[in-house]
Design brief:
The complex is a heterodimer of chains A (282) and B (264). With 282 residues, chain A is an alpha/beta fold. Chain A is 33% helix and 29% strand. Chain A starts with a strand and ends in a 5-residue tail after the last helix. In chain B, β1 and β2 form a beta hairpin. The radius of gyration of chain B is 20 Å and the shape is globular. The chains are: A alpha/beta (282), B mainly alpha (264).
């Protein structure tokens, strides 16, 4: 059974059509990435699924509920990390987790969650003394303390330094091993590539590509073969790299010359992404 | 209601009570842990009372000046706690997306609002107790005779100013400067309505401004109940004006309240 099902989702803010007919399914236990530049409709989509916004059209089911009319158990089963939220600056990490644990019928052990998000050395530190990365881990901790089945992560690593990002990635991977379904939005390609089982690329409110990161990069962008001939770089783009490469190397062998700086490059997700999202991508 | 729905509702009532108590404790922890809140909301009116009480002399309204001042500062404390404190706190929570984050938890909105209001009332009641204790200690002020009426006045005043506070929070668009805006309303209101001392020597137009502000009628009510031992119901005019302000605040609050940041 799918954890999230979205069919023909539309949402406009006045004149601005933020989401213009989006479809996707997320299976239970899957980590699904919504990838796209700022303003592509990622947050609007996620906030409709979380129950914050009403949709203009479309069918949405989240854990068997319509998030516009959620049953009492809906919020027991979701965990939310917003793009930005400050929580109570003067409470400690432990108190913050305990306050949120109190909202749920079957909360996890507070100390366990604090360790899961790696804040055990900070459990008695006040929220306002935490670094940006630690605050983000706190956001994740309070989102997990209710032991949700489905976790929404809206740009969980924006503004992180590389080390903090890798630590966050480890945590998000650990969610998968706990069997959680995760919906992740990001505008970082490497993040989607690293974490997501499947990715949907959003552009101007529409999904322009969907699949596993591998499928996306195996698509219609050509493989690039580069080498130098007489000091000049030659670039061959082909969808049949095996044949082209064989011809090139046969010819070079027959002539007894070296293909200098020979390089075969598969398109990265970044190439696909830039091709799909045009100039808007950062 | 079907039998099943009734059973669900029956199970939910104790759960809502548990959530209310849980959130009330959290609210109290958040309030007293914040130096700004406990200093400016709780301590400041008490400090003002001790300071002003030592410089005021003679008699006001036929009672020692410090006793009249106690009544005025009880009024100021009410506006400071339930109006200013609540408004600033709500703006900060809204703009910091705390309200939005709480909406995604199973905590029902009504339970959250009830806990915030109850927490505000607790702070104001403690402040009232501290005012009488300080008054008795330093200025020989009597404890309230009409105790039930005073308690009623305290709860009623807190409700009226809380309604205005929630409405004001909706009208403030950003966290920055929220406390400046609120104090820009609060302090002139306190001066114009006699919370810091009689206003009969003020120019007529300033008194006219004071005459439409709710704090004047709350101070009048506290004067009557505390200084003159009258019942809560002896000032129907003041009660009417306060109720009108409260109803107006509530109407604005219900129409404009937002759980999500206005900016960004």
């Amino acid at each position: 059974m799918s954890a999230i099902s979205v069919r023909g989702l539309r949402k406009s803010y006045g004149e601005l059509a933020a989401v213009q007919g989006v479809d996707f399914e997320i299976e239970e236990g899957e980590v699904f990435g919504l990838l796209g530049p700022n303003g592509a409709g990622k947050t609007t989509t996620v906030e409709i699924l979380e129950g914050y916004r009403r949709r203009d059209a479309g069918e949405v089911t989240v854990l068997g509920h319509d998030p516009e009319r959620p049953g009492p158990s809906f919020r027991q089963r979701i965990g939310v990390v917003l793009q930005q939220s400050q929580l109570w600056q003067n409470l400690t990490v432990r108190e913050m987790h305990a306050v949120f644990a109190g909202y749920y019928e079957r909360a996890r052990d507070v100390e366990e969650v604090i360790e899961l998000v790696g804040l055990q050395d900070k459990r008695d530190a006040r929220v306002k003394t935490l670094s940006g990365g630690q605050k983000r881990r706190l956001d994740l901790g309070v989102a997990l303390v209710g032991d949700p089945d489905l976790v929404f992560l809206d740009e969980p690593t924006t503004g992180f330094d590389p080390a903090a990002r890798r630590a966050a990635w480890e945590m998000i991977r650990s969610l998968r091993s706990l069997g959680k379904t995760v919906l992740l939005t990001t505008h970082y390609l490497d993040e989607a590539e690293q974490l997501a089982d499947r990715v949907a690329v959003l552009r101007e409110g529409r999904i322009v590509r969907e699949g596993t990161p591998r499928e996306l990069t195996a698509g219609d962008l050509a493989v690039e073969i580069r080498y130098r001939r007489d000091g000049e770089e030659v670039l061959v783009q082909t969808s049949e790299p095996t044949r082209v490469l064989h011809e090139l190397t046969s010819e070079a062998l027959a002539r007894g010359v070296e293909l200098e700086r020979l390089e075969v490059r598969r398109p990265t997700l970044e190439d696909v992404y830039l091709a799909l999202t045009g100039d808007e991508a950062e | 209601m079907s039998a099943e729905a009734a059973a669900v509702a029956g199970r939910r009532a104790p759960e809502r009570l548990r959530l209310f108590v849980h959130q009330l404790r959290a609210e109290q922890l958040v309030f007293w842990r914040s130096r700004e809140a406990s200093l400016f909301i709780f301590l400041f009116p008490l400090l003002l009372f001790v300071l002003l009480g030592s410089v005021y002399s003679g008699r006001i309204y036929g009672v020692p000046a410090s006793h009249a001042l106690l009544a005025g500062l009880l009024g100021y404390g009410c506006a400071n706690t339930a109006f200013a404190g609540l408004a600033i706190q709500l703006v900060l929570r809204r703009e910091g997306a705390i309200l939005k984050r709480l909406r995604a938890t199973p905590l029902p909105a009504a339970v959250y609002v009830a806990a915030v209001l109850a927490s505000t009332l607790i702070v104001f009641v403690l402040q009232t107790v501290a005012l009488f204790a300080l008054g008795r200690l330093f200025y020989g002020a009597p404890l309230p005779g009409a105790f039930g009426s005073l308690l009623l006045a305290v709860v009623f005043g807190a409700a009226v100013f809380a309604a205005i506070g929630v409405a004001t929070a909706s009208l403030i668009r950003s966290a920055e400067g929220s406390s400046a805006v609120v104090n820009f309303i609060l302090l002139p209101m306190a001066f114009l309505t006699g919370a810091f001392g009689p206003t009969h020597h003020y120019p007529a137009f300033l008194r006219a401004v004071g005459d439409v502000l709710p704090l004047k009628y709350f101070v009048d009510l506290v004067d009557a109940v505390y200084l003159h031992g009258q019942s809560f119901w002896t000032k129907p005019g003041a009660l009417g004006v306060l109720a009108a302000w409260g109803a107006g605040g509530l109407a604005v609050a219900v129409r404009t309240f937002s759980w999500e940041p206005r900016e960004g």
